[in-house]
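Example: AraC family transcriptional regulator.
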Amino acid sequence: MLYPHEAYERTSFGFKYLSAPSQPLRLISIGWEHVNSPSYRWHGLHRGGGFAIFQYTLSGRGMFRDGERTFALPKETGFFTVVPSDQEYYYPEGGEGWEFLYVLVAGTDALNHWTELTRAFGPVLSLQGHQEPVRLLSQLYAEICRQPQLDKYTISARLYEWLMSLHRLAEGRDIVRGTEELPDSMRAAVKLMKGQYMMDLSVDDLAEAAGLTKYHFCRQFLKKTGLKPNQYLRKIRVEQAAWLLRHTDKTVDAVARETGFGYTNYFIKVFRSFVGATPQEYRLGQRGDPVYFLRIEP
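Written out as structure tokens, the predicted fold is:
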């Protein structure tokens, strides 16, 4: 089975809310459909308003118009649209069927996320080779099929997880979620960084640990982590420095030396760029939350 929804029938679910719309992200409709008639046509200026739609082609082909631009929607392609807008999606004349998953959501967060994702991808995006967002949407459909009375808060949580998978894709395309998901070559380089961050490690050292050429290593590392190797090494050093500043009485100079920064002034500059505070400000809690461990994300 490719997707969880394939264990269920092709249908759709709609949701109405009796209480005032307090949730910033609410599911209005989700469905798995197949159409083969040109009468299937939705225009963003000829229907209600205040909601956002994502639709993903499972097989066949549809069409999407955004102003004066027209896009084909083949398999593994999806589109974003908001209503009202001068956009429409439809089944073309002479087609051989169009099968898709769709989700229709409302709320302030829905419109904000659609704006950001459209800015990153454009109105149409290919998810070929990037199946995590499709899997999560398919999983939501299957979960609602199993339990149509699933409460609205759980549904919203699933929608946020799905949206975050799209944002991850927008920011890094192939960025993985943790070092455990990195290829062995990349993990070897990260292990070296974490074990010897206080040493004067070069990109050549890291590429050698990964067993790759320097060019290929740098290219793959950026693709998988969202950071260049030297940026990732600085990230590890700053995280360790933050821990030392909060949990020891060592001077800023000593912390700089112990975390691989050759010069205190350079350490202060890098620390501020990552944390938004100088090492001393961070130590005193003048800027930044007094957390036990600081994690820096790409």
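The longest strand covers residues 26-35.
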